UniProtKB/TrEMBL annotation:
It catalyses: N(2)-acetyl-L-ornithine + 2-oxoglutarate = N-acetyl-L-glutamate 5-semialdehyde + L-glutamate. The gene is argD. Belongs to the class-III pyridoxal-phosphate-dependent aminotransferase family. ArgD subfamily. It is found in: Cytoplasm. PANTHER family: AMINOTRANSFERASE CLASS III, SUCCINYLORNITHINE TRANSAMINASE. CDD domains: OAT_like. This is Acetylornithine aminotransferase. Binds 1 pyridoxal phosphate per subunit. Homodimer.
Length: 401
């Protein structure tokens, strides 16, 4: 059977518009399509493939566990899930872990837990959830409504209630919304989809202080920033604040679907038996792969390497910009970076992405004005160099029209 891009239009729901490229294999930070054209991967499956493609440790974990046990119901527990949960608690503030299959599901669990905690401890009036404009927390109806992009939540009928939005980095705006009726504030410790926006130190510490003042939970959505992406195991560890609940997914499985919600024993006790669940959450296959991911990424050399690679990326992007003057600034932290387009090229991020693909480079966008890079955390320096050469050709093509 010949598989072509046209087949997508025949058989798939039209909610995506994938490019004409169909990748068929990958190794490290390189990918090859059906025509054997090679791409350097600066996209990492949207910050998912944190160890690139077919990393030996992940392939080994997957094949070994694949010979033993794939799935059990939650009527029983399993060894990989328990080992993974223990490692997550050792690496973070958390004492308790809940497993799901995705970031949206981890966030759904976090929001349900926050509401249940508030109801149990303070009563029904404490139900307000606040998040931030341009934030992204998933596509379930609850998480998409909490996310700060109405375009994603409009058009599906009545939305879950008692959800408010402030502007990111605007502490006064948040303070004006908060009261003792606020049960939780959810935020990304670096906004991803919203344009690669870093928090100011005052803002992030101020959110923590406001949550403490109003007895509200601080929920960190670390779906994109977690598992080494910013150079710390989790981004909160470099920000001087500790959340009450943290969600993690994307890179946690290195490409295999898994998500987790982490919290304290005191808060976790409100999700008692029967209050929440997931058929596949915590399955042995996903947990075995995620355990291998954590074993590799939690190594100090890997985390230090992320910081080193960030500097390499920034220098290269700056060199390109000195020549072509397309970017207003390079944003982000670690290997979650964004080239924000200047006034002249505003709204054209997609054009840079398309041109990059023509020159054999996979990258991303974050909104219409930012070209986003989320490569493997262990991408070799020669692949960064070659990828930046290809990106420069793409920039030249767009700039010269």
């Amino acid at each position: 059977m010949q598989v072509t891009r046209e087949l997508f239009d025949d058989v798939m729901v039209p909610n995506y518009a994938p490019s004409a490229i169909i990748p068929v294999r990958g190794k490290g930070s390189r990918v090859w399509d059906q025509n054997d054209k090679e791409f350097i991967d600066f996209a990492g499956g949207i910050a998912v493939n944190c160890l690139g493609h077919c990393h030996p440790a992940l392939v080994q974990a997957l094949t070994e566990q694949g010979q033993k046990l794939w799935h059990l119901s939650n009527v029983m527990t399993n060894e990989p899930a328990l080992r993974l949960a223990q490692k997550l608690t050792q690496l973070t503030f958390a004492e308790k872990v809940y497993f799901a299959n995705s970031g949206a599901e981890a966030n759904e669990a976090a929001l349900k837990l926050a509401r249940r905690w508030a109801l149990d401890v303070y009563g029904a009036q404490k139900s307000q959830i606040i998040s931030f404009n341009k934030s992204f927390h998933g596509r379930t109806f609850f998480t998409v409504t909490v996310g700060g992009q109405a375009a994603y939540s409009d058009g599906f009928g009545p939305k879950p209630g008692d959800i408010a939005h402030a502007d990111y980095n605007d502490l006064a705006g948040l303070e004006a919304l908060m009261s003792d009726k606020t049960c939780a504030v959810m935020l990304e410790p670096l906004q991803g989809e919203g344009g690669i926006i870093s928090p100011s130190a005052d803002f992030i510490k101020g959110v923590r202080a406001l949550c403490d003042k109003h007895n509200a939970l601080m929920i960190f959505d670390e779906v994109q920033t977690g598992v080494g992406r910013t150079g710390a195991m989790y981004a909160y560890q470099n920000l001087g604040v500790t959340p009450d609940i943290l969600t993690t997914a994307k890179a946690l499985g290195g490409g295999f679907p898994i998500g987790a919600m982490l919290t304290t024993t005191e808060i976790a006790k409100h999700l008692k038996i029967g209050t929440h669940g997931s058929t596949y959450g915590g399955n042995p296959l996903a947990c075995a792969v995620a355990e291998a991911v954590l074993d590799v990424v939690s190594n100090d050399d890997v985390l230090r390497g992320v910081v080193k690679r960030e500097a390499f990326f920034r220098e290269g992007l700056q060199r390109i910009n000195d020549k072509y003057h397309a970017f207003a600034e390079i944003r982000g932290k670690g290997l979650l970076l964004g080239a924000a387009l200047n006034e002249k090229y505003k709204g054209q991020a997609k054009a840079f992405l398309v041109a990059a693909a023509e020159h054999g480079l996979m990258c991303l966008i974050a909104g219409a004005d930012v070209v986003r890079f989320t490569p493997s955390l262990v991408i070799p320096e020669q692949d960064i160099e070659l990828g930046l050469q290809r990106f420069e050709m793409a920039v030249a093509q767009v700039v010269k029209g």
